[in-house]
Design goal:
- The chain is an alpha/beta fold and about 475 residues long.
- It folds into three domains: about 170 residues, NAD(P)-binding Rossmann-like Domain (Rossmann fold, 3-Layer(aba) Sandwich), CATH 3.40.50.720; about 240 residues, N-(1-d-carboxylethyl)-l-norvaline Dehydrogenase, domain 2 (Orthogonal Bundle); about 30 residues, Single alpha-helices involved in coiled-coils or other helix-helix interfaces.
- Helix content is about 55%, strand content about 10%.
- The chain contains 21 helices and twelve strands.
- Helix 8 packs antiparallel against helix 15, helix 12 crosses helix 13 and helix 16 packs antiparallel against helix 17.
- The longest helix is centred in the middle third of the chain and has 31 residues.
- The radius of gyration is 25 Å and the shape is globular.
- It binds NADPH dihydro-nicotinamide-adenine-dinucleotide phosphate and ribulose-5-phosphate.
- NADPH dihydro-nicotinamide-adenine-dinucleotide phosphate binds next to helix 1, helix 4 and strand 6.
- Belongs to the 6-phosphogluconate dehydrogenase family.
- One of its GO terms (biological process) is pentose-phosphate shunt.
């Protein structure tokens, strides 16, 4: 029988169970089996198990398929480890309710999907008969199959169980596995959420530079693709720039045009970018470049309104920006988006008492994940050297960032003057200029607040709370 029944007896050395054989779950399961780890697999639609075992080929000797949840759990050596790779929300709660009576207090259930960390904290608190772990997994299908970056939350007990399983399957950066126990309860999912927020900003900034070249300079997709290919060997070296270069070179077989030119300009989003912005605001942080990216995706879906507005408010000028300036501008924007993300992480760490190690997080993002880049390898030692300082003030940050700022200023200024939208690049620049303004304009805000609401203000020349006589 192709679909083996679970080897239900205690004592079998099935080290981990993977539940959910969709894109990510099946890739992760094959990665585990490839590394010599014996696994059990199960899926809501049991019909998927046999085809999966066939796809596994010789690896199937290390895989036990179990259609029945009881057999799946019973196949696992104790203390058990079960990885759920299913959509977040109600499906996870349903699975936990079904698993709960089958588990023991030393067992660990991992939600490896993208989940709202608030729900992860709730689930962690509610899990009474097992340990619950929220784990971020990044790298898409390819990463899950050959080496993802993994951000693990939950208890130390669970990390003891998970470390020997996850280190062999993680991506490696110069021999260092890209997996870490980043903090307790929801920390893993929070760090993954912020990773995705940075991903949104980076993708948006890349798209803005593409837009400047396409609409402001009349470049064709393959020409822009060649430029990105060139950049991917320099300071912008990264998975996302490489991917951009690749997709800009693909021709649509139906129309003979670049495929990107026939794709409707409406971006999807599943929520992680939005969660980053919501949590940043709750923590009193400004993740403005990430917010701009989320907002740009929202505007993208209002296609008919944009088409109408394009006729009512016409006029986009031509620009002339040289590739080196655009490259530096994109680099500066990328640095600023990362700094915003790391500041959100720092604030969350203080709020939830997670002791997040920002340098280690940068290190585990250097390979396997969607935002992997040479920049992260540059940021990690800076964050390690002066961990207590705001990241903008980390030792070495000025040397990294300042030389690229004039280019960002030039690109944002030129694009804005021509009516070309660059919301994420300009938000990053505005954040930077605000953050470096030693004497800001909040004195006027305080005066306004006191004038209409008697909220009081502090003076620079004497202590205490004061009010103005506003007439
Ligand atoms: N795709 C990606 O690049 C990435 C995805 N993720 C996250 O990984 C998780 C899985 O994504 P992905 O593999 O792409 O999704 P798929 O749609 O490919 O697979 C979903 C899996 O979840 C199962 N499932 C769906 N609903 C339920 C339910 N109510 N109860 C139990 N099982 C259910 C499906 O089972 P069935 O076959 O029965 O429908 C299937 O096995 C998501 O949280 C996603 O956000 C994280 C990083 C990257
Ligand atoms: O988690 C990921 C990578 O790290 C996924 O690619 C993510 O689902 C992409 O998000 P969205 O669909 O919102 O663009």
């Amino acid at each position: 029988m192709a679909q083996q029944q679970a080897e239900a007896s205690a004592g079998t050395q099935v080290q981990v169970g993977v539940y959910g054989l969709g894109t990510m779950g099946s890739a992760l399961a094959l990665n585990l089996a490839d590394k010599g780890i014996r696994i059990a697999v199960s899926n809501r639609e049991a019909d998927w198990i046999d085809p999966f075992l066939e796809e596994a080929g010789p690896l199937s000797s290390r895989i036990t398929g179990a259609a029945d949840l009881g057999n799946f759990v019973a196949a696992l050596a104790s203390p058990r480890v079960i990885i759920l790779m299913i959509p977040s929300g109600a499906p996870v709660d349903d699975m936990l309710a079904q698993l709960s009576p089958l588990l023991n207090p030393d067992d660990t259930v991992v939600d490896a999907g993208n989940a709202d960390f608030n729900e992860t904290r709730r689930r962690t608190a509610q899990a009474k008969t097992f340990h619950f772990v929220g784990m971020g997994v990044s790298g898409g299908e390819e990463g899950a199959r050959h080496g993802p970056s993994m951000m693990v939350g939950g208890s130390d007990h669970s990390w003891q169980q998970l470390q020997p399983i996850l280190e062999p399957i993680a991506a490696e950066f110069q021999g260092d596995p890209c997996v870490a126990h980043v903090g307790t309860d929801g920390a893993g999912h929070f760090v993954k959420t912020v990773h995705n927020g940075i991903e949104y900003a980076d993708m948006q900034m890349i798209a803005e530079v593409y837009g400047v070249l396409r609409d402001g300079q009349g470049w064709e997709a393959p020409q822009i693709g060649a430029l990105f290919a060139n950049w991917s060997a320099g300071k912008l070296a990264s998975f996302l720039v490489e991917t951009t270069a690749k997709v800009l070179h693909v021709t649509d077989t139906d129309s003979g045009k670049p495929l990107v030119d026939v794709i409707r300009d409406q971006a999807g989003q599943k929520g992680t970018g939005r969660w980053t912005v919501i949590e940043a605001l709750k923590l009193g942080q400004s993740a403005s470049a990430i917010e701009a990216a989320v907002g740009a995706r929202a505007w993208s879906s209002a296609k008919s309104a944009r088409l109408a507005a394009a006729t009512q408010f016409p006029g986009v000028g031509q620009v002339e920006l040289d590739p080196a300036t655009l490259e530096n501008a994109l680099f500066a924007g990328r640095v600023l988006a990362h700094l915003q993300g790391f500041e959100v992480l720092r604030a969350a760490s203080a709020e939830f008492d997670w002791s997040l190690d920002l340098a280690r997080i940068a290190e585990i993002w250097r390979a396997g994940c969607i935002i992997r880049s040479s920049l992260l390898d540059e940021l990690a030692p800076l964050l390690r050297k002066t961990p207590q300082r705001p990241v903008l003030l980390a030792d070495g940050m000025a040397e990294l960032l300042a030389p690229a700022i004039p280019a960002l200023r030039q690109v944002v200024g030129t694009a804005v003057a021509a009516g070309l939208p660059v919301p994420a690049l300009s938000a990053g620049l505005a954040w930077f200029d605000t953050a470096r303004q030693g004497t800001g304009t909040a004195n006027l805000i305080q005066a306004q607040r006191d004038a209409f609401g008697v909220h009081g203000f502090e003076r620079m020349d004497m202590p205490g709370k004061h009010h103005g006589d506003w007439g």
